[in-house]
Amino acid sequence: MPAKKAVLIVVDGMTPDAFERAAESGRAPALAFLAANGDYRRGTSVFPSLTPVCLSSIATGAGPDVHHIPHLVWWHRAEQRIVEYGSSFSALRVAGITQSLTDTIYNMNGEHLSRGATTVYEAVEDAGLVAAAVNITCYRGTTRYMPTLPWVTKAAYGPKRFFYYGLFESDHTGAPFAVRSRAAGSTDAYAAAVGRWLVTRDGFDFLAYYLSDYDYSSHLHGPAGADDVSLERTDAAVQTLLDAAGGGDAFLDRYAVVLASDHGQTHVERAAQLEATLARFADDIVVCASNRAAQVYLRPDARTDAEELARALDGEPSVDVTLRLAGHDVVARRDGADGRADELEHPDAAARVQAALANPNAGELLVSAAAGWEFADLGGRHHAGGGSHGSLVAGDSTVPLLTIGIDAPIARITEIAPAVLAHFGVGVTADAR
Ligand SMILES: [Zn+2]
After folding, report:
1. Which is nearest to 388 in space by CA: 235, 271, 287?
2. Is the N or C terminus of the chain more exposed, i.e. has fewer CB atoms within 10 Å?
3. What is the pTM of this model?
């Protein structure tokens, strides 16, 4: 018998606490139904625990050392410019709106995502199956799409079924355009409309279904307050898929399921400007900070090095730990002393830091924020008073992982794609291309 088809549901920024509350509270019947039928555990994200890095890791089954997406904002050494994927509207303006939109919509997949990584869509379709992607920012496939907006004339390459905020659509579904009101949940409403269309037609073998509005609420209201605004809407977007199959049992008869978030969130009270702390090195470095992580890049003729920068951050209250390479060794500097990453108490710290530093697009110095702190972005924006993520701490790094009909015991978000491919009997080819 061929393997069941599979659906991957990614709820951006939903912490394990939030998922466990949702499954038990009665407020989220679709999540509760799936939880009651699945194997649940807490797993770990990657570092930095920021959405472009995390979704690339989920879609490729590999860390940033393989897929090369380093952060929400980073320094492109070959092009000597900042790449900004959307820390805030102000940050986009500083980096240049047109360039930033091109980087986010096209270049992240077309240029920045390493050809050495294989997306789950590429692997599934290489095996003759049909992959579908809804709104997920790591979407690389082999089918060419022109945008739905006639004045945008650049093509993108996605899976056979591809829906990206209404800008790219493989099929006419009647779904309303996604980017109308984030606060009112229009993005997930778009995803749900497309998801209903896809499940009603059973129009895929593998579907990646990405819901982003929960994270947006958690940034505004904090991880403890996001439920009040977004939990019911997130649940409704999942319930839509179940209903489209004829109910929860019919859905599970047809599909294996992985449900996960990409990262957690923690409450933040204060924001720091790392550029100010490192101001005396301004001519020698580029600081790319956003949310709760930063990458510091040395300019080609810099008269400083990563060790001196790390020492300059000694005593800075917003910094938990800095990470750098000395030869092949990872140095984790904390409380004014160099140590090893495997001495950090953070989940899976040594492997996550190693993968972050081995990314050729990473800065020479990585900075992980202390609890309660955020680093202001290029536009000076932050989420103080709300929620944020990006650091190595457990709250940012721990995710809910639920599997139904998938045998592999997934413990990290990088293990999702290999588990899906193993489910289909497709070779795991993270480094094959
Ligand atoms: Zn976020």
Report:
1. 271
2. N
3. 0.96
Torsion of CA 278, 362, 64, 109, to 10 degrees: 110
Would you mind telling me the total number of residues written for the chain in this entry? Answer: 433
**Helices and strands: H and E segment counts in the chain:** 17, 22
Helix, strand, or coil (residue 174): coil
Write the DSSP assignment of 273-329 as a string of letters.
-HHHHTGGGTTTEEEEEEBTEEEEEE-TT-SS-HHHHHHHTTT-TTEEEEEEEETTE
The rounded Å distance from CA 187 to ligand 1 centre is 14
- Distance (angstroms) between ligand 1 centre and the Cα of 272 equals 18
Interval 269-320: pLDDT, tens: 999 999 999 999 999 999 999 999 999 999 999 999 999 999 999 999 999 9
Distance from the CA of 215 to the center of ligand 1, in angstroms?
5
CB 396 within 8 A of CB 347: no
Residue-wise pLDDT for 65-89, tens only, equals: 999 999 999 999 999 999 999 999 8
Ligand 1 centre distance from Cα of residue 283 (Å): 30
CA of 218 to the centre of ligand 1 (A): 8
Distant-in-sequence, close-in-space partners of 424: CB < 8 Å, separation ≥ 6: 3, 6, 124, 127, 129, 205, 206
Closest Cα partner for 81 from 105, 98, 64, 66? 98
Q: What's the CA-to-centroid distance between 329 and ligand 1, angstroms?
A: 30
- The torsion region of residue 186 among left (phi > 0), alpha (psi -120 to 50) and beta comes to alpha
Please name which of 112, 107, 114, 108 lies closest in space to residue 66, comparing C-alpha atoms.
114
Q: How far is the CA of 278 from the centre of ligand 1 (A)?
A: 25
- The token duo for 393 is 């701490």
Cα–Cα distance, 145 to 169 (Å, whole number): 8
Query: Torsion angle, CA of 416/420/422/427, rounded to 10 degrees?
Result: -90
Cα distance between residue 233 and residue 45, in whole Å = 24
**286 CA → ligand 1 middle, Å:** 23
Angle at Cα 312 formed by Cα 310 and Cα 317, nearest 5°? 90
Bridge-partner residues for 209, per DSSP?
Answer: 9, 134
Vertex 14, ends 125 and 399: CA angle to 5°?
70
Compute the Cα dihedral for 358, 362, 363, 369 and give only its sign.
negative
pLDDT in tens, 168-225: 999 999 887 766 666 667 899 999 999 999 999 999 999 999 999 999 999 999 998 8
